[in-house]
Please model this.
Amino acid sequence: MKRWVGWTLGGALVAAAWAVAAVTPGEHAYEDPFPVAVEVGETGIGRNVAVTVLDMRRAETVRAGSWSAEGNWVVVDLEAEAVESEFGTLLTRATLDIDGRTFSASERPESLLRAALSVGIPRTGSVAFELAEDVDAGRGILRFGLDTDPRLDSVIVLDIDLDALAVESAVDMLPTEWSRR
Amino acid sequence: MTGGWGRRNALWLALAAVLAPLTVGVVAANEWSEWDLGHSTKPITVAAGESTSYSGARVGPARAEFTTDPAAPAGSRVVSVTVLVEPGNDPISCATPLLRETGGAQRQWDEASFELERDFDANRTTFCSAEESLRYSLTLDYLVPEDAAGPFAIELQAGDALPRFLRLIVEP
Model:
């Protein structure tokens, strides 16, 4: 074998090994959720959950009925329904990832969090995220799904830009009810 | 020689050809039978208007109609169902049946008394109670979107009869 053939073959093998390493999925890729990326106003339809985010608001005070609380709040108004089955279908997962931290929707107000979803008949309501005081700007990711364990199920995903949302002094959460169409 | 080797080992090759799939079959049957025990996997389809014997009882006929309800939101309607149950010597116990679309995506709805804000009614039976020995009927309401037109199946399962369950066809 000529010398240059050996070098070329060796180089090609190293390049091939690098390519294989580069395209190898991560360790947990086999159990990744199935993301459905949407924007505000667009309906994201997953396996058994369909979510339409209607609006996002920031506020210093959030009110839900007679309940209210001060804080660094992000309120998301949304419509949600089940797609194929009502068995154990609750909107259990609502998270906001920002700054490398994950905030779950607050359990303090009555909200669409953990609401039972009906097949084909959407419910409207809000979920509220109480962020840490130092989270004031930047881009984050909203995720909605049926289970707090997101593995191998659909997750509806939206980008959220805190800088684009004006901070209001107080906002009301939408009551949880059937959507008016 | 390949032919010679094959001929010398013909018996063992034939044995392997039988035993290998048999092993797969036995292991699979064993695993699946365990899964089947606790799950409704074997439907007994009952045609509209007919009845069948299930878990020692006579179940059916099931009838359904579309009804209106002030608590039903716009874009939806109620499927009201009655299922006749005649317990045999031993009473039948079953969970509240669910409603399934027989076509399309086979969507499934739960009984909707709660969604329809019904008050508790002691005379309204939504599940087969082991304390009932006389004939009675289940009264079930399902809230479905307007695009769900049927025919539907009422899926009724009794724990002691699993994995067999009933699919009572109704055409409102």
Q: What stands out?
A: Chain A touches chain B through 14 residues (CB under 8 Å). Chain A has one domain: 33-178. Residues 33-178 of chain A form a domain with the Immunoglobulin-like fold (CATH 2.60.40.1240).
